[in-house]
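Example A, followed by Example B.
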Amino acid sequence: MTTDLDTERWLRLFRPAPAAPVRLVCFPHAGGSAGFYHGLSQRLHPRVEVLAVQYPGRQERRAEPQITDIESVAEAIAGVLAPAWGAPTAFFGHSMGALIAYETARRLERTAGVGPVALFASGRRAPSTVRPAERLHLADDRDLVAEIVRQGGTPAGLFDDPELTAMVLPAVRGDYRAVERHRHRPGPPITAPVTVLTGRDDPKVTAAEARAWEGHTTGRTEVLTFDGGHFFLLEHQERIAESVLTRLLPDPTAAPGPA
């Protein structure tokens, strides 16, 4: 049974918008936290109420066991969301977050009979696409840090502090282990339309891998390409917010009604 405490552990609401006609649940990338979506929340408020997922093993949840596999964390999030589904809800996930958002949607549709009205999959290839074995989670700390910095999206100087690095790196490694070991299980596609957002120079997602998301939904699939690498969304916050609004609201410029 899901409790209010479970909801408080898993979800962060930065800017309440009780009059918003739609909610957007955001799923962070590997090593990321709910705060990554502060900017998007600000740009969508008050027309969309943004909830951000906080994974275990980081920040105020750092004492909890880390993520071990994608399916178990999706199961937990689905269990938190289903009892309080209510308003139309869309999902937005970046990188690992897109994969968790998709798996969460699958579980909600299968077990609760509800699902997101839209899925925004950012910086992640389609779940069924297969690449040669990825083993970054087995790299030593130095190589792992170098790869994280190379991808961008990490606050400057984060890994200059040995104590902070020792605190952050276990969760990052655990996330990479979970996503690199994940294998897509065949099953019914989700019904939500999928908007794929990708960086033109992102080595983690090719054009074909982005388009392959169309095999995972019975709804429409479209691919939006932005200049930049894996963390292109940090450079295009306004455009991405506009893309979300256009696809979620009949009139993106309209003000929300009374609560």
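Example B, a separate protein, is given below in the same form.
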Amino acid sequence: MSDARPVYLAGPIQGCTDSEATDWRDAARMMIRGDILNPMARDYRGREHENVSDIVEGDKADIRKCRAVLAYCPRPSVGTSMEIQYAWSLHIPVVTVVPSGPVSPWLRYHSIGVFRDLAAAIASL
């Protein structure tokens, strides 16, 4: 029997264009079997400083509901890194996508798999 809990889509949001924040999430939503939790549903871009608790507590609550975290890491992101570590601390598996460039030892350590390709990462879920 498969785990029906959703997959959380972690990745940069702050400082990203709409396309940078949503394109990969839209693609992932189409490929993932089952539900996802997308932090872009609570888009606080431009209002981050007034909504610190809502952002962090909302993301942490979503992560606790998930069977896995899919982390898209095209560039360093403090929020994404914190989400990865939080999930790892709760023994929630993290699958990471680093499309290019070096992969941080911290990402490798906290991920059950690191991939260059979104489709390959999703297949591993």
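On Example B: The mean pLDDT is 95.
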